[in-house]
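Data availability (excerpt). The following record was deposited with the supplementary files.
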Amino acid sequence: MLKHRGFPSRLTGTDFQFTIRRASKEGPTKIIRRERFRDRKSMDRAADEGFMAALWYQFGEETFERGNLDAGRLSWLFGREVVPAEDPFDPQSYDALLRIDRAKAEASFPAVFAGDVELPEEDDDDWDE
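Predicted structure:
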């Protein structure tokens, strides 16, 4: 499993996780498309925005490997702002390739692309476990 060095592990000041520390013994969690309803809590929306900001800063329009990115957090963006970059796509693989659909991401998170979102801080955790 690829570990994305420099990627924040969570949204600063919260328990909203962005990355995982190690591969699951049961295998990768499947990435699914989760529905985002208008009445979601503001912290949930902030976590989505912070995660998108981190993705955009780290990868931009380049294809990226799922690696240690949290499947739950990816699932909130999957099928809209984050899309498969390969066909066939295996949603249950750490090696799955993804990319940001800039047009959809910019429509959903305009502040990220305007530079108005502060990036979550990188944790100083030891990732060599």
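Summary of structural features: DSSP finds four helices and three strands in the chain.
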